[in-house]
Amino acid sequence: xxxxxxxxxxxxxxxxxxxxxxxxxxxxxxxxxxxxxxxxxxxxxxxxxxxxxxxxxxxxxxxxxxxxxxxxxxxxxxxxxxxxxxxxxxxxxxxxxxxxxxxxxxxxxxxxxxxxxxxxxxxxxxxxxxxxxxxxxxxxxxxxxxxxxxxxxxxxxxxxxxxxxxxxxxxxxxxxxxxxxxxxxxxxxxxxxxxxxxxxxxxxxxxxxxxxxxxxxxxxxxxxxxxxxxxxxxx
Amino acid sequence: xxxxxxxxxxxxxxxxxxxxxxxxxxxxxxxxxxxxxxxxxxxxxxxxxxxxxxxxxxxxxxxxxxxxxxxxxxxxxxxxxxxxxxxxxxxxxxxxxxxxxxxxxxxxxxxxxxxxxxxxxxxxxxxxxxxxxxxxxxxxxxxxxxxxxxxxxxxxxxxxxxxxxxxxxxxxxxxxxxxxxxxxxxxxxxxxxxxxxxxxxxxxxxxxxxxxxxxxxxxxxxxxxxxxxxxxxxxxxxxxxxxxxxxxxxxxxxxxxxxxxxxxxxxxxxxxxxxxxxxxxxxxxxxxx
Lengths: 235, 289
Ligand SMILES: Nc1ncnc2c1ncn2[C@@H]1O[C@H](COP(=O)(O)OP(=O)(O)O)[C@@H](O)[C@H]1O
Ligand SMILES: [Mg+2]
What we know:
The complex is a heterodimer.
Chain A: E1 3-12, E2 15-25, E3 30-35, H1 41-49, E4 56-61, E5 64-65, H2 71-76, E6 79-82, H3 94-101, H4 110-121, H5 123-127, H6 138-150, E7 156-160, H7 168-183, E8 188-192, H8 195-201, E9 204-209, E10 212-218, H9 219-224, H10 226-231
Parallel strand pairs in A: 3-8, 3-9, 6-7, 7-8
Antiparallel strand pairs in A: 1-2, 1-4, 4-5, 9-10
Helix pairs in contact in A: 3-6
Chain B: H1 2-33, H2 40-57, H3 62-85, H4 92-114, E1 128-130, E2 136-138, H5 139-161, H6 163-173, H7 175-179, H8 185-207, H9 221-232, H10 237-257, H11 260-277
Antiparallel strand pairs in B: 1-2
Adenosine-5'-diphosphate (ADP) binds next to strand 2 and helix 1 of chain A.
Main location (chain B): membrane
InterPro entries (chain B): ABC_transp_permease, BCAA_transport_permease
Transmembrane segments (chain B): 12-38, 58-80, 92-118, 138-159, 191-211, 223-250, 257-277
């Protein structure tokens, strides 16, 4: 297992956000975490990337504990988080945003190659490379957030609701990108409220309900599950 | 009449130069760390005393003493970051109170070390550039203007073109997202504190021979602090830098042509105007979460 989260609980002050959550991510493929608003999906990702402190349990990446490291040390190991709401740097140009993603790879020669690859994958970003990020549409900003993460050369990509607030065509495109990234050998943890999309893309799925894992299994199996169909797929 | 105007313009340019250095340091610290550094005026004062101690008392060459002042006050900035602002990171009010404490310590140290008397430091050069009969620019003032231009250009280059400059801007725009790019909050805080403090120190050191140095000379900086921070807004670091330089110019020009009280009124009106038109500041966008 590339990532193993074992019995992790996180609380914000007295409010408990997730309780005893255990998740495993293999060396390849897409793992999804679905659940309603407030179920604890983002908190789970934030615990992995070090933005939230695990109160109990442990998180191992490549066999080593990462749950006491600050976020920048976790990124250095290759765990890269595309946060909810995109969080691009609004007052920086598209290209500056992308360079920021490669912050830890100081002047490595392949940074330029990776920048070209990101531009090849997202031609819109190339067109707008000198534009301030805040002037772009929601879909373009999501592409930028993903491109920025790819510039870090991730070994594991965490994506928090990349489809949020986007038009159906763009959502489809995001789905294709997730598949591509995974096919290129980078495992993805995909958090989604859009369960239909997530279960279609994922190999394995977890369902979070009020901060606990209520259900898990291979994605096609969960797609057929009565409870999942009723609660998350609206059928 | 044109000669009077030209002379006043030169005076304003000189004053705006060193006030810009002080103001830019403040917005840099506020932008990256989210704390109002109340001790900023005292860092300016510490730079001036570096000149008293090194240049006036033991005869180190002036520019070498200025460089030493820059490093010394930058070091004070690092000390503040480590001892005050880092432990209080989740508590901006605590950071502000701690910086007031530090201000008092620095003042007390200056009094203990040098007494409360005014220090008058002989300028390193008495040369005056005579542009015309009534328009004159003392070389010691020209040094301040040129240094400010050079330092602010260097800062601009740093922010726009270097990896750590990008890191600083990213932290100012979204500290959490910056952390997710592998940018260490401790590191950007250190850099911002060093640069911000060093700029204040250099301003104090450069102007020491042109003003009367005393332990309370940093006092007036606090008003400037509030105005530039609000006018500069949160978000764009470069925007805040531009806003603080603009403010320094408007304020000093009004002070030279009218007086300081009118300038403060103009400054505050500017502030109110900006708040009405652009509540996030002249260049600011994002709210600090
Ligand atoms: N910064 C915060 N402060 C306090 N409570 C929070 C904070 N962030 C999230 N929570 C709470 O933690 C729970 C889980 O939130 P979150 O992980 O954001 O859920 P999701 O991403 O599934 O919508 C919710 O009850 C939410 O209200
Ligand atoms: Mg969420």
